[in-house]
Specification:
Among the domains are: about 1-120, no CATH class; about 245-375, 2-Layer Sandwich (Heat Shock Protein 90), CATH 3.30.565.10. Strands 1-2-3-5-4 form a 5-stranded mixed sheet, covered by helices on one side. It has about 375 residues and is an alpha+beta fold. Helix content is about 65%, strand content about 10%. Helix 2 (about 40-50) packs antiparallel against helix 3, helix 3 packs parallel to helix 5 and helix 5 packs antiparallel against helix 6.
Length: about 375
């Protein structure tokens, strides 16, 4: 509601101004004397001078002139003039406008008394103090208070921005530290595995060993490429553009081929055609399948794994199931696989369910909203 901008969008201020106007009308009509100087103008002038106060926050000086005019031509009470003078001082502070308004208010408030009878010292002092000095001082105090609150608000906003900037700098520094650690430790180890696997494939005693070594080398090289992209994101604060978005769903076939090359049994079923999804959903779906296959290989080695993607009702379902086995490879895990998987799915707007089923299988089910790339843009 644009008209509420006069009252800073606050209904309470509007209600206050309406209450002031109604009070002035009631008090003036109940105790006023409409016989002098113009009885016919008295009631309309009272209503006009009181209702004009509704615009005092937008045009305080104009409201002051209206109050002076009603006072001079119809002899209304000094209350509208007092409120208008206060509004001028509160709006403009110590300024020429406030000074002119005070002079106009003093002259307007005394002209009628001068016409009726010579003013006494008591009348002059009363008018100056109660109807001129008091409203001006009160208005100046409110103006100074508003400026002080504005300064404090700006300082609070500046402090919040500084705190956010320092937090961002701390996060960026921590990300660079993590990138250094990953490069010095993880990248070194994976590179050593790739080199050893390459050397083994050259000196393999048989074809099966050569194929296994070549698979290890290829997987290690892929891991190094992905690690390089992660390190770039950590260091440069760049978007995760190294991995394709919707294309990751299609690259699930390559992922399954890499896993099956290690001897695992994986069956993949994809919808035809593949849905066009935003990059974030595509990455999350890919990582769910990747982490699920890794977990299945560690906790249920040689067990058949079913990977199914399906679209239904505007949602993409990614389901990975495998038979529970008592065997375990003994390969240690980080303990954060399922946690990271859940966080990635939730960031993409989806939901994740993990756990054993009633038929002795372990299931990972992730559901994402299907929004086309064009709609997402």
């Amino acid at each position: 509601m644009r008209w509420l901008t006069w009252w800073d969008g606050r209904v309470a201020l509007l209600a206050l101004d309406v209450a002031v106007a109604v009070t002035i009308i009631v008090v003036t009509l109940a105790g006023g004397d409409p016989r002098d100087p113009h009885p016919a103008l008295y009631v309309p002038a009272v209503v006009v001078s009181a209702l004009a106060l509704l615009a005092r926050r937008r045009w305080p000086f104009l409201v002051l002139l209206v109050a002076v005019g009603c006072l001079l031509f119809a002899g209304v009470t000094l209350l509208p003039l007092t409120v208008a003078l206060y509004s001028v001082a509160a709006r403009n502070g110590v300024s020429v406008v406030t000074g002119v308004a005070a002079v106009v208010a003093v002259l307007g408030g005394n002209v009628l008394h001068v016409l009726r009878e010579p003013p006494s010292l008591t009348t002059v002092v009363l008018v100056l103090v109660v109807f001129a000095v008091g409203p001006v001082l009160a208005g100046l105090w409110m103006h100074q208070r508003a400026e002080l609150l504005g300064v404090l608000r700006e300082r609070a906003d500046e402090a919040e921005r500084t705190r956010t900037l320092l937090a961002d700098q701390a996060v960026f520094a921590e990300r660079r530290r993590i990138a250094r650690e990953m490069h010095d430790v993880v990248a070194h180890r994976v590179t050593a595995v790739a080199l050893q696997a390459g050397a083994l494939s050259l000196r393999a005693p048989d074809e099966q060993t050569e194929q296994a070594a070549e698979t290890i080398r290829a997987v290690s090289a892929t891991a190094l490429e992905e690690l390089r992209g992660i390190l770039q994101v950590l260091r440069d604060d760049a978007p995760d553009a190294a991995s394709p978005g919707a294309g990751l769903l299609a690259s699930l076939e390559d992922l399954v081929e890499e896993v099956t090359a290690t001897g695992a049994r994986v069956e993949l079923k994809l919808p035809d055609p593949l849905p066009a999804v935003p990059d974030q959903v595509g990455r999350a779906a890919y990582r769910v399948v990747q982490e699920s296959l890794t977990n299945a290989g560690k906790h249920a080695p040689h067990a058949a794994v079913d990977v199914r993607l399906a679209t239904d009702g505007g949602r993409l379902a990614v389901e990975v199931t495998n038979r529970l086995t008592p065997r375990h490879t003994g390969v240690p895990g980080s303990g954060y696989g399922l946690v990271g998987m859940r966080e990635r799915v939730e960031l993409a707007g989806g939901a994740l369910q993990t756990g054993p089923t009633g038929d002795g299988r372990f299931r990972v089910l992730a559901e994402f909203p299907v929004v086309s790339v064009q709609e997402a843009k």
